[in-house]
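Collaboration report, partner site 2.

Our partner group contributed sequences for two proteins of shared interest, and the home lab folded both. The records are reproduced in the order in which they were received, starting with the first partner submission.
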Amino acid sequence: MSDTLKVSLVGLFAAAGTAICFSIIDVLVKFLSGDYPLYQVVFLRSLVALPVLLLILVPLEGGYHVLRTRQPKLHLIRCGAVLFANICFYTGLATMPIADAVAIAFATPLIVTILSVFLLGERPGIWRWSAVAVGFAGVLIIMRPGPGTFQAAAMLPFFGACGYATLHVLTRRAGGADSAAALTFYPSICFMLVSALVGLTTGDGRFSTGDSLAVNFILRAWIWPAPGDWWAFVALGLTASIGGYLISFAYRHCEAGLVAPFEYIAMPMAVIWGILVFQEWPDFPVWIGSALIIAPVLFLSGARPATTAPPAAHARAPPARKQLRHDNRRSRL
């Protein structure tokens, strides 16, 4: 097995690990959402995640010099995308059953695959397009869109999916030049600064009306965590740091359209969490949809690799794009 193929395999395992970590994050955020505002949860999560990143993950990558970047504008856009995604998805998660919110958020892999065509020059083959389409069909079965079932809160996870898809594609675009630690570090700093600012300006709860679950979750007053809740904040920070690092590693070393569907693993986990923690037993369409989501993930391990668009004749690409095309030509599953 070639070294590049080994790296790709590790990247896919990292994507699966990311799904597990993010599923744990989802259940912890929903668990805490009844008592704490969103940005307090984000602030305390970052307070735990940053030391883990700086004291463990960064040294593993070779030291603090790996945090340097020549792409500050790109990282600023990534931070904006992940902030938008978090506020939309987690607000939806606080107001909906966990399985429903996660299912809607699985529009992310479809959006990633589409964006990877236009922004990364990838050309997914017919088998990968088919696998993603089948997975998305499973998501639609779970959502059951229609006049009698539509609710405005369902749009929040979808908007979150758009933000996450943008983040993932930009991660892939930046990955040739920056380390996974750097790709994780800048959003973590952004989370801490923005959440601290929101806490200072709205943390007294004066803007919380109490009429809307979504608005109340964002703007309710910050409170000192109960002793029995600290374990959840610590676990949230640990899984956030590990999951953020793994997803950055996966999109840095593997093709975006190949990594994205592996995030479907979080769907059956959301169903399990809903049953065990929140007593939200899914109905028959959820089971059918979950099966359609998982099947493409298993299939993709042997799917035909995507190709990249050929460079224009006599065109000279900038260094970052050269590196990107070089990465896309590596051996893959």
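Second partner submission, folded after the first:
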Amino acid sequence: MRHRYGTRFQSGFCLAIVGLGIGLGFLWLLRVLSLPPRVLPVAPLISSVISSPPPVLQYESRNLGQSTVHILHIPAQSRFRVTVARSPAVDSLTTLAQASGAIAAINGGFFDPSNQQSTSYVIQRGAITDDPTANERLMQNPDLVPYLPAILNRSEFRQYTCRDSIRYEIARHRDPVAAGCQLISALGGGPQLLPTMTLEDEGFITTVDGAIVRDPLGSRQPNARSAVGLTREGDVIWMMVAQVDAPSPSGLPLAAIAELMAELGANRAMNLDGGSSSAFYYNGETWYGKVDAAGNPVVRPVKSALVVEPVS
């Protein structure tokens, strides 16, 4: 009897110990569940996205044999803007560029060297600063009277502010301003080279029975030339074609300028004043388009220019 009771006692004791362990374990679990969650420190994430550097100006010079072509590519939405500089009289392109603090410059609109007045519209800060209708030698020239409506509505390079961005356009002077934009500056030139040549529409040539009888630009002859173009992405392209001393005649006709602009990616382009006015300034150096009989560059003061300035 004593042995049987002792066995029962030991079994009961073991069961009690096991029960106590289960109870303590259950109480520990309840305590753990009631504790606030522990926040472990997380190492900061390192971004793998590397921001691209802002686009930069791209200058190049091409030797075409009969000419040297100076080209400047100004990317859209870069740290630079293209705007207009002018002189109350006339000045060298270098003087215009340095006076405006420009990085680059190219000669601009047409003017009359005799009275130093513009024959192209110039707009700065939204206001007309050069009005060809105020040029009496233009407006009272009997040979030009039939062409005045076209002359006063020639193409111009425009700089807009559209909300917070800068945008450029080549348009005729009487064309409306782009929707949602403010016209900041404009420089008249012409004719348009791309998408189509507008020589006759803008009063630069006269044809009779399909033959050209008037062509003051010598559009089909090689010469020093200046032009500005725009790509579909909004980039600006400048081009100045400089003559070489041999072979003669040297330079390019307007059709070749249009072809080269298209090759560079422009889908719109406009001619600027050329010949002795052609000049190109970049990074402190100036190149001139026209050469004299001895092969020396012709330095001619100009009335206006397109300039590249850093965006502040």
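Feedback sent to the partner group on the second submission included the following. The chain has five helices and 20 strands. Confidence is low (pLDDT under 50) at residues 1-20, 26-30, 37-51.
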